Every structure is written in C-alpha cells, then in structure tokens.
C-alpha cells in the first residue's frame, strides 16, 4: 500500500531529492533529539520514527519499495540480504550532530554502534485523584524487568565459548526495523539489533548460556512502593533510579511514574490553591447559613471568599497550605414564586386608570444612567446663587420667613 507518512514525518514532498531528505532529517533530528527534550517522554519515540523514515528513504531501493508497499513492504522487513541498506541513521546523525556542535566526538547518548549508552527510561503513567494528592498515598507496583543474567554475568555464553559475528546485523549492531502500530502511525522500533543487542556478536546456539539462552538478561519481578507525597501535582514525576530494564554494558535507565490527576467534579486546583463553587439558595444567601459571616453581610451571586491556609498541602512543607477560594452562586427562586411572595407583601396594585384619558402620548424611553442625572447640578446651583442677589422669583418665589 502506498504511503507518505515517512515523507510527512520529515516534512518533505514524496518527490524530494536525497539532498532534501538529508537536510530535512538533520533539522528534525536536531529538534527532536531526546537529549534536547529531557522533559518530553515522546521525544525518544519521535526521534526513533524519524530515524526509521530517514534510513528507509535514503536508500533508493528501500525508498522505491516503501513508495510501492508502504512501511510493511518487503524491503523494510528484516532479513538476510539487506545489502542496500548501507546507511545507518545513527551514524549519519552522529556526523550531523558532531558537525553542527562544532566538535568531534560521539553524539551524546549513543555509542558508536547501535547500542545506546544509557538504557531507556520506563515511563509509567499513574492516575491519581485530587484526594490522593491532598492526603498523600503509597501505591504498590509489581514491575517486571530485564536484569543481567547472573549465570553468565551478562555474556550470554557458556564459559570459554567464543562469540561469533551476529548474522542478523552482519556485526554492525543495528538493523533498520519499522513497525506499523495502526494505520498512519509508526510504532516505536529499535534500530539496535534485536539478536545481539547492539554488540554485533553472538554465541552459537550450543554455546549459549542455559539460563538466559544467550539473551544476556532474564526477566525478574520486583515489588516497589511508590510514595505519592502530599501536595504533589499533575504531571509530576516520581523517579526510581536505575530500575528500568538492564542491559550488559549499558547504564540502566529509570522507572518514572508520571502522575496524572483525574479532574475533580467540583474542586479545581491551581497550584496550591483550591477553588470550588457552592450553590446556595436565596434565603441561605440572605441569612448567611453555612459560612459564618460578619453580621449584616449578605452574599450576592458571584461573590468569592477566600479562606487562608485551607487549600492544598505544599510538598515538603508539612505545615504550609495554599488557600481555599469559595465562589458562591445564589440560586434565585422562580419568577412565579417571587411574584406570589411580593404580592403578599407589597401594597395592592393600583387599578388601571378608569376612565382612560382621552389623549395618550406614546414616547420612546430607555434605561436610565443615574450618573447622568446630577451631571448639571453644579451649573444650576451657580446660576441660582447669582439670581439670588436680585431676589426676583416672580409668582413662583418661595415665601421667605424672617424672624
Ligand atoms: Zn546483531
Ligand atoms: Zn546467561
């Protein structure tokens, strides 16, 4: 099946030249290198996908096969005569990287072969509630991980046995491997050779360690306790150093629990502060039920109060807490109810004018702006003060009472 996802990944058109592909890969690889994105757990995956796309598109044969069959095409599959796949994405990237960094040496994070210097971190999302983060909790996990085989000390062979060149990768330690997880999605794939784990050598079947069968590592179960501390936050990471899969000769990565806070139905958290909306009835608002307030204070809809130091605990500060904000929404009674209450309290409505006046003027009106009401008051008073001197009020003059 034809596919353009590799081209899309690199951001080039499907008729891009090799030079364009090289340039695009260099740019993208620099941007997505895991060392440059330590806080992005997806960086390694993106980087890996870029490498797959690049190594496939760089070679004319594999590119032609990809164009025709997509990522699952025959040439992308692993197998014997991968002679055409001379370019190794890692090595090319190494060139780019050391070149652009202005220095020699190896790119950080990778050894000369396909074997990484440090094993991958194992990232485990862990869902918690606001209550968990408020109270703190301990969670138990059973991890299954690869540990270096104790029987052969990670050599994978019997004592005295001599390793042979790995046939799968022809001793290079890496193989171009692509995997499609779902339509249009490239899965994580290791360019490290799965047979020799990047060493480039392997033992003959008869000479392999009986315990690990030449794999150099065995599976081990380990129970761990994860302490979720009071006041921890969404996306915070709890790192268990060196607990990820082991691989001989490679620094073991970490197991990282990444906290995911499930949103709370009524309480919203902002840092160490909490805010919640309380719905009260009109009488509660007027009489001040629930919240003790200063005498005479009434609540209006939309009022917010703050209660200091009743919010989230602050991590590593046992007695410190954020603030709790309470936002009040006053639920107004229905108009019908209001009318019936008001009618019982207010004087009766005046009857309609009877008889109706002979002339009724229809005028336009609008809501009043009371700021405008006394705008001209000062001017008016000034005029009056002046006129006062003359004392001429005509027929309408108020009576002066002299005592
Ligand atoms: Zn190999
Ligand atoms: Zn072993």
TrEMBL record:
Signal sequence interval, chain numbering: none
Location of the CR-type domain: 136-221
Residue ranges of every copy of the J domain listed in the record: 5-70
Keyword terms, alphabetized: Metal-binding, Repeat, Zinc, Zinc-finger
CR-type Zn finger ranges: 136-221
Biased composition annotated in UniProt, kind: Acidic residues: 375-403
Name the UniProt record assigns to this protein: DnaJ-domain-containing protein
Alphabetized PANTHER family for the sequence: DNAJ-LIKE-2, ISOFORM A-RELATED
Annotated region (Disordered), positions in chain: 370-403
Claim: Magnesium is one of the keywords in the record: no
The UniProt record lists the keyword tRNA processing: no
An annotated GO BP: protein folding
MF annotations from Gene Ontology: Hsp70 protein binding; unfolded protein binding; zinc ion binding
């Amino acid at each position: 099946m034809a596919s353009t996802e590799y081209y899309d990944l690199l951001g080039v058109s499907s008729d891009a030249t090799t030079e364009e592909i090289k340039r695009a890969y260099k740019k993208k690889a620099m941007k997505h290198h895991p060392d440059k994105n330590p806080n992005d757990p997806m960086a390694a995956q993106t980087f890996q996908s870029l490498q797959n796309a690049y190594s496939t598109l760089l070679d004319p044969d594999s590119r032609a096969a990809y164009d025709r069959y997509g990522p699952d095409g025959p040439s992308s599959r692993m197998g014997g005569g991968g002679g055409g796949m001379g370019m190794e994405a890692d090595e090319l990237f190494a060139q780019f990287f050391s070149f652009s960094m202005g220095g020699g040496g190896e790119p950080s994070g990778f050894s000369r072969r396909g074997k990484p210097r440090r094993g991958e971190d194992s990232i485990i999302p862990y869902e918690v509630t606001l209550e968990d983060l408020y109270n703190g909790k301990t969670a138990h996990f059973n991890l299954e991980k690869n540990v270096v085989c104790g029987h052969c000390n990670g050599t994978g062979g019997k004592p005295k046995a001599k390793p042979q060149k790995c046939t799968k990768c022809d001793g290079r330690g890496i193989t171009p491997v692509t995997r499609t997880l779902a339509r249009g999605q490239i899965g994580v794939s290791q360019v490290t050779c799965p047979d020799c784990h990047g060493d480039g050598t392997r033992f003959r079947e008869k000479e392999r360690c009986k315990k690990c069968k030449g794999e150099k590592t065995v599976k081990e179960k380990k129970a761990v306790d994860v302490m979720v501390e009071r006041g921890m936050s969404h996306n915070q990471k709890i790192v268990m150093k060196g607990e990820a899969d082991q691989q001989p000769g490679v620094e073991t990565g970490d197991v990282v629990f990444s906290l995911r806070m499930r949103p709370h139905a009524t309480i919203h958290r902002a840092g160490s502060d909490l805010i919640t909306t309380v719905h009260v009835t009109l009488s509660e608002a007027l009489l001040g039920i629930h919240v003790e307030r200063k005498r005479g204070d009434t609540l209006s809809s939309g009022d917010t109060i703050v209660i200091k130091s009743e919010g989230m605990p602050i991590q590593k500060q046992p007695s410190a807490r954020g603030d709790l904000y309470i936002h009040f929404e006053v639920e107004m009674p229905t108009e019908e109810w209001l009318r019936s209450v008001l009618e019982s309290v207010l004087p009766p409505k005046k009857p309609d004018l009877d008889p109706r006046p002979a002339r009724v003027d229809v005028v336009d009106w609008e809501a009043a702006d009371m700021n405008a009401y006394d705008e001209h008051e000062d001017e008016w008073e000034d005029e009056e003060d002046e006129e006062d001197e003359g004392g001429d009020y005509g027929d309408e003059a108020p009576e002066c009472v002299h005592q």
